[in-house]
Design brief:
Layout (H helix, E strand, L loop, with lengths): L1 E4 L1 E11 L16 E7 L8 E7 L6 E3 L3 H6 L8 E8 L4 E6 L5 H10 L2 H4 E5 L5 E4 L5 E3 L3 E8 L5 E4 L9 H7 L12 E4 L2 E6 L3 E6 L2 E6 L6 E7 L1 E4 L2 E4 L4 E4 L1 E6 L4 E7 L5
Antiparallel strand pairs: 1-20, 2-3, 3-4, 4-11, 5-12, 6-9, 6-11, 7-8, 7-10, 13-14, 14-15, 15-22, 16-21, 17-20, 17-22, 18-19, 18-21
């Protein structure tokens, strides 16, 4: 197996924070707040998946992403399904997913223009340990006071429908066209399959597993890359040490040893677990 420790890219955002999460250095009080930390593969490669941490102090925009077919029609490499593992949240933190009731696209567009879209959305209270899958076409908005890990198809195509009056570009034509303005349906979560191993997502675009500490053998088919995200704890994979706040890519076969009490995410592209 080849294990590669990925570089981190800190993204400053006005809605970010100065206090991040264990494993990450806080930005200086005089500096801009950090909203995202991305893990980047070396060179100019564009892998299938992208892993991020998000740290919010304000609501993010109301947005939607295209599916693969819609993205290809627009000359883009892929659509964007994504999911979120909630690490921490304030007592009143919420995430919007879908609309409270089905609405037509004309109503959706008008609501985006006059701001009433906020009332159309289904704002769900969130807490540490929650998990949500947001498929392409799902209208969504991440609220304030949340720390989460996002696993997504590697696409930054975001159509912004509403931004609370902030002076940023909206993409109403594109966004309304790809939106499915209906109530959110939770993605099936297979759950525990063996001690210390839970399947959070099984397709259609990627698989996401959650592991505890201990010894584990990893076997990835040729050409398939996996992403190991230690949320807590530390360990070694193929001779490469890792700890919380880092991310490794894995290829091939090897053995992994994680300290007792570790909490790991493991993601790889595809529709079925390995």
């Amino acid at each position: 197996m080849t294990a590669t420790l990925l570089a981190t890219h800190r993204v400053e955002k006005p809605w970010g924070r100065h206090h991040l999460w264990p494993g990450f250095a806080d930005p200086s009080a005089e500096g801009d707040p950090v909203g995202e930390i991305w893990f980047q593969s070396p060179g100019n490669s564009t892998p299938d998946l992208l892993i991020k941490y998000l740290f919010t102090s304000e609501k993010l925009s109301v947005q939607v992403h295209p599916n693969d077919e819609q993205a290809h029609a627009a000359g883009l490499p892929r659509g964007k399904d994504e999911c979120w593992v909630i690490l921490a949240a304030e007592p009143d933190s919420t995430i919007a997913l879908g609309t409270k009731a089905p609405v037509d696209r004309e109503t959706l567009r008008a609501a985006a223009l006059d701001g009433s879209i906020e009332a159309l959305l289904d704002w769900k209270q969130v807490k540490a340990g929650d998990f949500f899958y947001s498929g392409s076409g799902t209208i969504h908005a991440i609220g304030a006071g949340i720390t989460l890990v996002e696993v997504q198809q590697n696409s930054e195509t975001t159509y912004r429908l509403y931004d609370y009056g902030r002076p940023r570009e909206l993409h109403l034509d594109e966004g309304v066209a790809v939106s499915e303005p209906v109530p959110y349906t939770p993605h099936p979560m297979p759950g525990p399959v063996e001690p210390g191993r839970t399947i959070l997502v099984e397709g259609p675009k990627f698989v996401l597993e959650r592991w505890g500490g201990g010894h584990r053998k990893v076997a990835l088919p040729q050409g398939v890359e996996g992403w190991l995200v230690p949320l807590a704890g530390e360990g070694v994979a193929d001779g490469v040490a890792f700890r919380a706040g880092e991310c490794l890519t894995l290829e091939g076969e090897a053995e992994l040893e994680a300290a007792v009490g570790s909490d790991l995410l493991f993601a790889y592209p595809g529709a079925r677990r390995l």
